[in-house]
Specification:
The chain is α+β, with helices and mostly antiparallel strands and about 575 residues long. The protein has four domains: about 220 residues, Rhopdopsin 7-helix transmembrane proteins (Up-down Bundle), CATH 1.20.1070; about 70 residues, PDZ domain (Pdz3 Domain), CATH 2.30.42.10; about 70 residues, no CATH class; about 140 residues, GAF domain (Beta-Lactamase, 2-Layer Sandwich). It is about 60% helix and about 10% strand. Strands 10-9-8-13-12-11 form a six-stranded antiparallel sheet, sandwiched between helices. Helix 7 packs parallel to helix 9 and helix 17 packs antiparallel against helix 18. The termini are far apart.
Amino acid sequence: MPSFMRVAIVFVIGAWVLGTAIPDLNRVWQPFPSNGLSTDYDGVVISVDPQSPAALASIVPGDRILPPLPRELFRDPPPAMSFKLVHDGRVRALTLSSAPRSLTREEKIRLLALHAAFLVFLIVGSGVLLLRPSPMTWCFYLYCVFRRYGDLGFYWPGSEALFWSNYLALATLGGAGCALVMMFALRFPSDRPEGWRRALNGVATVLVVLLPAAWLYALLRVSFFGQPSQPFVNLLDWLTSVVYLGAAGVFIVTLVQSRGDQRQRLRWIVVFPIVLVMRIVAINVPSSLFSDLLAALAVSVPLAVAYAVIRRRVFDVEFAISRALVYGAITSIIAGTFLLLDWFMSKQFAATRFTLTAEIIVALAFGSSLNMLHHSVDRLVDSTLFRQRHLAEKRLARAAAAVVHAESHEAVDRFLVHEPLMAFDLTSAALFHRAEPEERFIREVAVGWSEGDPAQLGPDHPLVLHLLAQGAPVRLADVRWSSDESPFRIGSTVLAIPVLLREQVASIVLYGPHRTGADIDPDEVRSLLPLVERAGAAYDHIEAQALRARVEVLTRERDAREAEIEKMLSRMRMQRHRAAPGHPGSS
């Protein structure tokens, strides 16, 4: 599908599901009609709100509405409706109207949280599809969209035709959600269902069509023909639970069968089967508290999927948490300072304009000292909450200060390879030196490398070309011959850093990931740069010392030869003088 068409479809669907949620959100600020009655699909009263029209009509849980069930029973907001009710064994005719009702504070918070959670699903699902379009991500995207009715219901106080068309569409399409999850699980993460997965994928494809049709039949039977349908709905709920449970099992099998860095990338997907099992419990054992807990935990599902699908490399979750804490602390400090200043100035100088002047001065002060504030907060967070990371950075800083005093290439090589390896607990590290004049890079030191890993890198190797062009760290996941080919792999290396000597790449240092499988994060790369830069200076110093020693040797050799030549010339002059005519020694 062309990218323009894909973007257009995502935009239209997003506008539909979000636009039709606006009236529901308006209930947070405005009263809305309600009769306080809640029933199942057989017309049995489940709950009655206190002081509601249903409560004033003496309707209690356990009462039953006789068929034909009124169509307005599942209309939201409900208009006035007439029906016959069985209460205490007696049948009575009722006309139930609606009255204005306002949400409580807890209900407002819950409604806003549910809309926010669905927005996260929609945004992340759309992003995953647009960034990595495939049948697998289409399944996940449609699952995120079809959660709309199950998460938010459908509230529309306007047109009857608009309500029923959207209600039936959203409620029936929501029935396909479990089958879409199964299809996603069977294709995850490679989008290639093979073996038994292919057979189950065919079954899930059939269910994507059959389940919405079954839900449409149930809803039409209840709302348009007034026939009780709770047993059929229970059957659909049971089938949905089975499919969800099967999808959870497929996720667990995928995680168990994964290996190496793939397992590190996929491990957070375990949230998905946990949420699916909780959803099964919520379907069969309704509980408002459990539903709220499920909604809160479910937000992590799209984030875990996006992490596993979009990222080509594994990043350290601690890095994300530490950055969030740092920027959150900075934001809190700035906001808190302005709030405190505004409160103080409004109290002390309410009749003057000095408050605005003071706030401008404070804003300028924060702007000029923002880098210093960021550095201080960063150091405080890392030293208190992420001590291991802080100690690793301090170790590399000490190594960077010490390497400039090295007196041999071997000592510098050990600093570049062993110090980061030990500080960050990496799986491997290696150093390649430039070999003159062939322009090849020969491996000199390696830790954690196997015999099959390359011993040299030629001048046309894509990694060498990238390093020569950029003169800066390069991640191997970004090194490609073309956009259609997979990244080059050299052992378990994830990062390459050039060692520059007089603006030329003298050596290349290759580092593997953490032993946890996490990639080297940007902060760790910044910690490595001073060590590598000073190692280049140390190489330059060592070469300069070697050149000076060579010059001294050559100078001494020259002086010795000049002295020897001078002696030879003196002897030759003396011999000529003696052989000259008239000299007493001449014959």
